[in-house]
Every structure is written in structure tokens, then in C-alpha cells.
Amino acid sequence: ESFSYIAQALTDNKRKLALLKEAFKLNPDNPTILNRYGYALAKFKPEQAEKAFELFERAVKIAPSNVATFYKYGLALDKHKQTEKAFEMFERALQLEPKNYKALNSYAIALIHHGHAEKAFEMFERSLQVNANDIIALTTYGKALADKGKFQTAFELFERSLQVDANNIIALNSYGYALAADNDFQKAFELFEKSLQIEPDNHITLFMYATVLEAAQRYEEAISRIKKIRPADLSPSERNFRILKLARLYYLTGPKKQGNHYFDLVIKNAKQADVERLQAAKHILAIQPYSQKAIDLLIEITDNSPQYSQALRMLSLDLDPQAYFKLFKTTAESSLKDTEMLNRAMYHKILNEISMLKAIAYQIVKDDRASEVLSKVITSIETTYDKITQRRNEEKTKVEQMPTNNYEETVAIISQTAHDIADIVNNEIAIIKRRLQLVLKGLTQKDRFFHKLEKLLQRIESTETALNDLKSVNEGINLHNDTFKVNALFEPWQMTSTLQHATLAFDIQNGDAEFVGDKEKIKSFLSELVENALKHNPEQPDFQIAISSKDIEGVPHNTGKNPPRKRFGAKKHLFITFSDNGKGIPPDKKEWVFLPLETTSKEGSGLGLFIIKRTLKNMKGHIIETGTQGVHFEIDIPYGEQ
Question: With contact defined as beta carbons under 8 Å apart, do 265 and 248 qualify?
Fold first, then answer.
């Protein structure tokens, strides 16, 4: 057993495993050796996970009351995505010893990983009642609270952890990272500097510090920290990540040549070069849309691996249609054509408009006498799907029969399909509209659901106008500007204070201002954001959506130029914010959400936010997402001339 104790203190994983293996040979029935060896195999040798689980099962049979076996078995199972059984092991550990703080911490950490924050917080509280100075519980609990936006409580826990051990690297780094998330960069920098005074070469500290410096737009300093990381201290994948980080930072500071050098180095060192090419292209496109370097990387992937469909998809949306057609005109048999992508974009918008119409219809009409009308409305909407599918299939057949070099005729077919789909939907909407008008004609304003049906009719008319916009084949290219009061943008949602499971709140400070722009497209942006919020937070208790609007002078955030800077001037902008208190966008997904076909939802198309950003670009507007407690989108659009 002494071998296993020595192994616990080792940082060299190979030596640790070798010692534990030797200990197991000498004493194969010792439960402590079994659970330590099993956990090490599960953690450091994932290909031997089954052997690890066998060791744990053996330990359970030998010592069914050993708490450490159960919670370590739970951690090993969770690492290999056997979540249900992992939770069962944690529960069994706590049945044996309800106040075992190591079991409580392990369970809490697993719960956090799977989004069960409230139960995890309960476990952390129980752990700290047992051992108030446990630095693992204090720090991990603080990190979890900060991730949920509960910064003040998190900061109190970090302070307590530093009172226990003022030089604890994990506590210092976690505290600094949380402070940066709350925009207190100065104090965050101080904590990272203190951490580096203690361990100047700690590569985790340097990575985290560089990330925070990047968030503060101090790119040169971030590069300096990344360059201090010694490649010899890193695994091969970590070394490539270091180079990728440098490439990205150089792109942000301006010298693209240096950035390209590092991107090429990543690809050269990669086991799967095309995977790294795709990652490099994503990084570049997130910083510099329509970058030729990114396009070249994607083309290289398709040359090397024609089956790499994600590269084809990205190319189809990051090239303009004619450039795409010319590039791929010899690959007519490809499963993904530009025509299909255009149809997907149109279809996405139709589905979004109809789903929002249905949601508002259900919310507005909750009366028994109105239910028959509502049923017919919903049925009429849903019957459009079959007609749309039929028309799209007809278009697909025609395009397949076209010569591969006849771009003009292909676009004509796509254009006609766009018109036909819009006409199909608008015909159905017209029928629904007429049905509601007839019902309203037989009512008076004294009828208790008259005003609700009237508001539903207004929403249907708004949807009708929005869908007419689909006759523009390339979404966002053709803008239809007119003059309207800003308040008209929010009327579809202001008619009700709730929508499905969400409460809506509005702060419209410039409602009476006259704006010149494309009203229907801006309303479709809001519709997309509302629909996304509802879709991504289906079970969020007390779910709240807040929308605000005001006028500003200039652009309040980075517009994509390097280095980022505030840009103020005489030009007045409409400034809209959209926030919710949901689960938000994961930090590792924030860069990608505006790229085509990137989605955080299993059901999502990955086109909605891309369409918004591309359309805003044609309006000379911008959109960014900066949420830490749920999503927080900011949209700015310059006022047009009357």
C-alpha cells in the first residue's frame, strides 16, 4: 500500500501509473489500491476505462462500505459519460457517510458539469458545514457561482479560500477569472500577477491570464504571456493550442502575416491537418469575416477531403453565390450545393416567422369560445409545410437537370422558387387573415376576447409583411427602407406581458423617434432572438426576456476593425439590447455563434444569427453578444436619411 501513497504524490503520470500497477500486483485485494489504480486508469488511460471499472467493482465487492471507492468510481464513470451510474455511486457514498466532504465535493462537481447547479450548490453548502476551510469546496463553489453570474457570493468564497491559503494558485486564478467576467479587470490582473510571483512558469496561470488580457483588448500583453509558456511543459495538443492562441492574437493586433505563420504551424504539427485547418478558418472568420486566408484554408480542406461537409457548408455561406458556383461548378453531384443553402436560409426564416406566430396565437387566445378559431388558424399554418416541401423538391429536380456551367439559369430557378414559396405561405396567411376578419365582424368590442383576436390579426398582418421579404433570393441584400416610429418594431411582443413560459419586459426610450430603415427585417431580428431564447431555455424557472431601445451617437462597441476602438461621431444610431436570464451561450461557443451552420442547439440550423449579422452588415449596423448571466445582444443601426 505504501507504493500507492507514493504514487499519489507524483506529478509524472507515467510513473504514477507504473507504481500503482506494481502496488496492485503485490496486493490485488486492497480496496484503497484498487480505487486509486482504477481512478488513475480512467483519468490518464481512457482507452482502459473498462479495466478501471472492473477494478472498482472488485473493490466494492471486497469492501462494500468504503466511501472513497464509491465517490472515486462516480468520478471515473462521469469522466466517461456514464452519468446516471455515476450519480448512483455518489448517492451510495453519501448513504454510507452523509457528512463525507470529499464525497459531497465530488458529487457537486459532477452535478455542475451536467447543469444541475442548484443541487450542486446544496452539496457544496453541506460540504462547507462539515469542513468550513476546505479550499477545494470554497474555490470550486466560487467558480460555479461566478459561471451563473452570482459574482458577489462567489467573491466572498474566493476571499475565504485565500484566508485559508493566501498563496493557493487555483484560488488566485479562479478569483481573477471571475473578476474579469464581472469586468473588474484591474483587480483580476493583480491576482494573476500575484499567482505568477508564486509560480512564474505555471502554464495554466499564463493561459488564463492571456485569455483575460485578450478580453480586455490588451493583445500585445496577452501575446507576451503566451510566449512565456514553455512548450516542453505541454502535451502535444496543448502545444498546438498555444500556437493557435498566438495566431489568433496576432490577427487581433493586425499583423496577419505573423498570424498566418502560426496558423500554418498548427496545421503542420497536427495529426489531422484538415481538422486544424477548419479550426483555423473558424478563428479567422470570427475575427475577420470573408477573409481570403480562411477561404483558402477551406478550399484546401475540400481538395484534400471532398467528404468534409462542414468545410463545404462554410464555404457555401462565406463566398458570394456566383463565386461559390464558379468554384464548385464541376462538383454538381456534391450533396451540398449553393442552391440548397439558399433554400435553407429561406426555409429557416419561414419556420421562424410561423413558429413565432403560433406561439403568440396560443398566448393571446386562451378562451373556450375562441379555441375553435385558433385550431383552424394553427391547422392552416401547418398545412403550408407540405406545400413548401413539394415546391422545394421540384426546384431541386430542375437544378439537377441543368448543365453545371449555366449559372444564370440556375439562379433564375432559385429565384422563382423563392417567389413561389413566399406566395404559398402568403396565400395561407391571407386565408387565416380573412377567417379572423369574419369572426371579428360578428363581434363587438364588448366581447371579452375581441381585443385578443384583434391583436392576433395585427400579428398575422405583420407576419404577412415579413414573409413578402422572402422574394429577395439572397437574404439581406435587398433592403426596403421606409419611415416609421421606433415603437412599431416592438408592437408584436408588447401586446402581451408573457410568451409561452417567459415574462417580457420593455424599456423603449425612443419609441416616438422616426427611424428610416427596413422595419420588417429589424422585426425579424427580434423575432429570431425571441425564438432562440424560448427554444434554448424550455425549462428555465422564472424565465425573463428584457428588450430595450434608445438613440446613441456613434457605435458603442468594437465593430470588427483592429485594434478595437470606440467610434463616436455625429451619426445617430438606433441601439437595441436583448437580454434574458437563461443559461446563456457557453464561453467556448461565443466566438462561433455568428458563423454559418454553428449552433448550440440540436434542432438549430446554424443560420439565424448568421443571417442577422449579414443583413446588419448591409445596413451598416452591427451585433455583438456579451452576456455573463444569460444572453445579452447589442444591435446598433444607423439612422437613414428621410
Answer: no
